[in-house]
Design brief:
By secondary structure, the chain is an alpha/beta fold. Helices cover 35% and strands 16% of the residues. The protein has a single domain, classed as TIM Barrel, CATH 3.20.20. The strands form two sheets. Strands 1-2-3-4-5-6-7 form a seven-stranded parallel beta sheet. A two-stranded antiparallel sheet has the order 8-9. About 10% of the residues have low confidence.
Length: 275
């Protein structure tokens, strides 16, 4: 049976490098029949692709409730934060992430690092590695160190497209995710080693999430490639954050804002982290 999804938790709008307004993206989610959609624009230290500043997420948050009422879709607001250094730091401060519904961390080869020198010693070689496989492979350890540190250091819901553009050891990332309750993303908007992501997650017991990474309304909720991949490896719905339940029946467990938990119906308590 092909897996169905109730949500797309990774989309971008014109607040960062998306090509549509939040309303246009939410309307597209409604047309697709989704119960939930998350607006997760790029962090502010992304070169030419990020939000103006971290407070922008609070502006989007003000729109979310009204858009949800208008289109009958639950609208979450999050950030696809950039990992900005080998220490796993992010470019969205805790006072902002504490107001968000979802926190994603991703490696991108176009980010201003902290400390700035790592832009030259870490990010620039990864840019070169996009065209020279030998350089790409040589940066694998550093990239893995940064992403694993981010997983342990921050209350992440999931890591975005692990291995896309910046090579990582997927087993090490999966181990960190399994230990912390963070999920690994199957991103249907990009071509990368998605099979490897699923295989590593299954080996180490990490959760998965399937998202579109939509930058246009037409691709919101376009998750068929992810469903086919999950079917290929016989991944059960209980291992996939946005499958096998409906948003209206999900219950938020009160507690620390650093680690909120959904209890899907007819399933045991999971460690899904919505901030």
């Amino acid at each position: 049976m092909v897996m169905e999804f109730f949500a797309d938790w990774h989309t971008h709008t014109s607040y960062s490098d998306g090509r549509a307004t939040p309303e246009e993206m939410v309307a597209a989610a409604a047309r697709r029949g989704l119960a939930e959609v998350a607006i997760t624009d790029h962090g502010p230290r992304g070169m030419f692709i990020g939000v103006r500043d971290a407070e922008t997420y609070l502006e989007i948050k003000k729109l979310a409730g009204k858009l949800g009422e208008k289109y009958g879709v639950r609208v979450l607001v999050g950030a696809e934060a950039n990992v900005t250094g080998l220490d796993g730091g992010l470019d969205v401060p805790r006072e902002i992430t504490g107001e968000l519904d979802i926190l994603i961390a991703g490696l991108h080869p176009q980010v201003w690092c902290r400390p700035l020198r790592e832009t030259l010693t870490w990010i620039l070689p990864n840019q070169v590695g996009r065209y020279i496989s030998r350089v790409r492979d040589s940066m694998r350890n550093a990239n893995t160190t940064a992403l694993v540190a981010a997983v342990h250091k921050n209350p992440l819901t999931f890591v975005s497209h692990p291995g896309l553009m910046m090579a990582v050891d997927l087993d090490e990332v999966a181990r960190a995710c399994a230990a912390t309750g963070c999920a690994m993303e199957i991103n249907t908007g990009h071509h990368y080693d998605r099979d490897g992501v699923v295989q590593a997650a299954l080996r180490w017991g990490a959760r998965l999430v399937v998202n579109s990474d939509a930058h246009f309304p037409e691709t919101v909720g376009d998750l068929a490639a992810g469903a086919a991949l999950l079917d290929k490896y016989s991944v059960p719905p209980e291992l996939v954050l946005n499958a096998g339940k409906t948003a209206s029946k999900a219950e938020v467990v009160p507690g620390d804002k650093q680690s909120r938990v959904f209890i899907p119906p007819a399933r045991t308590r999971s460690n899904v982290r919505l901030i």
